[in-house]
Write a structure and sequence with these properties.
The chain has 271 residues and is α/β, with parallel strands linked by helices. It has helices at residues 2-35, 51-57, 62-82, 95-100, 103-122, 124-128, 144-157, 173-190, 200-204, 252-263; strands at 43-47, 87-91, 131-136, 163-168, 217-220, 239-242. The chain has a single domain (41-251), classed as 3-Layer(aba) Sandwich (Undecaprenyl pyrophosphate synthetase). Helix 1 (2-35) runs parallel beside helix 10 (252-263), helix 2 packs across helix 3 (62-82) and helix 5 packs parallel to helix 7.
Length: 271
């Protein structure tokens, strides 16, 4: 009896999806008409949260949630580049992911990172849009073979000047600021700068994102309303958008809603 109920439930779900598909397409076109004339962000930051919870909801293994999340990242990047957005920073793995997750899950995440970096080398969009790829974060926490693959991708794309993709791996905003302070202190000690030289503009040059404008828009999925140690210095005046969908189920209409929300806001930058 239980198997019959499950079969019927799946059948009804599939029928519902088929019925909703035309409505979804109409809504997508309606959204596009609202956002197509811009303005669009120059730099977007993304916190792709909810992979594990999505897997539990779908009664799948945790690692399948991360796999689904990785596939979604590739799709979302194509949407971003199609809009002409110049830079995106993806929060792929936090410092805590690299130190506090169970070893087997951590290794799975690094396995996805290995594959993802390798695929970037042959990804046609990277070469079509001239995307400069950079891996940012605490390199001491990243396995050597992943680092070597990251260096290879960075070297292959270093001369590209169309767009920028930052992959934040073993990254923490507080840790980035501390690392910047240490470099700054070393330069003061060497005499290349003086304490009087230090201001916001100079300090920003010591961050991982030193040659990029600060993010205009930060998108976080899964219904969590927090920043989780992501780009703490850079997002001082970013617009924040929180989406209820888990990352693997983040749709184009969810992305376009975020863009629409950004377009409707008045950016004052503290004025």
């Amino acid at each position: 009896m239980s198997s019959n109920k499950n079969w019927l439930s799946r059948k009804i779900s599939r029928m519902g999806q088929l019925l909703l598909r035309p409505i979804y397409k109409v809504y997508e076109k309606w959204l596009w008409l609202q956002i197509k004339n811009g303005p669009f962000p120059i730099h977007i930051g993304i916190i792709p949260d909810g992979n594990r919870r999505w897997a539990r909801k779908m009664k799948l293994n945790t690692w399948m949630g991360h796999e689904a999340g990785y596939e979604r990242i590739k799709e979302v990047l194509s949407w971003i580049w199609d809009l002409g957005i110049e830079a995106v920073t993806i929060y792929a793995m936090s410092t805590e992911n690299c130190t506090k997750r169970p070893p087997e899950e951590r290794e799975k995440l690094f396995e996805i990172a290995r594959r993802g970096l390798k695929e970037l080398l042959t990804n046609p969009d990277i070469h079509k849009y001239k995307v400069k790829v950079r891996v940012i974060g605490n390199k001491d926490l990243i396995p050597q073979d992943v680092l070597e693959m990251a260096r290879k991708v960075e070297e292959e794309t270093v001369k590209y000047n169309g767009k920028v993709l930052n992959i934040a791996l073993c990254y923490g905003g507080r840790q980035e600021i501390i690392a910047a302070v240490k470099k700054l202190a070393e330069d003061v000690k060497k005499g290349s700068i003086t304490p009087e030289d230090i201001d916001e503009k100079l300090f920003s040059k010591y961050l991982y994102t030193k040659d990029l404008p600060d993010p205009d828009l930060i998108i976080r999925t899964s219904g969590e309303v927090r920043i989780s140690n992501f780009l703490l210095w850079q997002l001082a005046y970013s617009e924040l958008y929180f989406c209820e969908a888990y990352w693997p189920e983040f749709r184009k209409i969810d992305f376009w809603r975020a863009i629409r929300s950004y377009q409707h806001r008045e950016r004052r930058f503290g004025r």
